[in-house]
Amino acid sequence: MDGKQAVDITAVRHALQGERDLKRLVNSIWQYEAAQSIVADLRDAKLSVEALLQIEADEEARRKLSGALMTHAVLSYCRATLPGSEGRAHIEMTGNYSVDQKKKHKRIVHLRNNVFAHFGMPSKEHGSGWIEERAIIKLVGDREQPSFVRNRANYLGDVVEDLHELLQVAIDTGITIREKRVAFMTEEIGKHVDDPRVGRAIKSSPFNPLKFFGAGQMEDFWDYGQNVRGEAFRVRERDKGRPE
């Protein structure tokens, strides 16, 4: 790699997990990971919201894509802002919201809980306009025909506007928290850099971008800033070799 190398700090955290006297160092890495991961989720949600705004005038694209984009935006936003995840530390991303923005946040969460994540009985502003279903019987002459009707929104303009506003505040909050946490993590690593356990963990945890991202994706990995994102379409094993 022409003298370039990277360390997998997540692997270092795992390697040091059982060292009780290094708990503060391990936690600093975990908290930094959470901040980066949450900001990434929020940016994913923002990409979907921006795509919705771009395709609004394209009837065909709106019909085919808007439902998926809306679902992704709401779920990514709520995954980043709601507590309860076992996989990463929670960060309070709504602390800088105004009173009005906190109300908008609650409406988005209600929509997520009662429409996207679970089948519920939505009642609040966004949810009540999202979906209606009816079991019916058609009476045509002497025939009875049981049927089912569904009226579902692909997306609601009010939800897009609320998310667009909330996401910018939440992302700015997350970036501020991330910068504080990277400073804390760097300080903790510096305190223990001469500890042989830390040295062994670092030495045994190289990061290989080719292995992580796959061939053909990240040739310019070393030219990126601190946030690197790869995209991959993963073909199912049963589809490999299937003729086009």
Explain what the structure shows.
- The chain has 244 residues and is mainly alpha-helical.
- It is built from eight helices and two strands.
- The protein has helices spanning 9-16, 23-55, 59-81, 99-116, 125-128, 157-192, 196-203, 209-213; strands at 131-140, 143-152.
- It has a two-stranded antiparallel ribbon.
- The longest helix is centred in the last third of the chain and has 36 residues, at 157-192.
- The protein is elongated and about 85 Å long.
- It starts with 8 loop residues before the first helix and ends in a 31-residue tail after the last helix.
Uncertain regions spanning at least 5 consecutive residues: none
Percentage of residues in helical conformation:
55-70%
DSSP strand count: 2
Q: What is the first-to-last residue Cα distance?
A: 37 Å
| Adjacency order of strands in the biggest sheet | 1-2
| DSSP helical segment count | 8
Order of helices and strands: HHHHHEEHHH
Reported for the largest beta sheet, the result is:
2 strands, antiparallel
How much of the residues is beta strand, in percent? 5-15%
Features of the shown structure:
244 residues; mainly alpha; 2 strands; 8% strand
Short description:
This protein has eight helices and two strands. It has 244 residues and is mostly helical. Helix 3 (59-81) packs across helix 4 and helix 3 crosses helix 6.
Write the layout of secondary structure elements.
Elements: H1 9-16, H2 23-55, H3 59-81, H4 99-116, H5 125-128, E1 131-140, E2 143-152, H6 157-192, H7 196-203, H8 209-213
Antiparallel strand pairs: 1-2
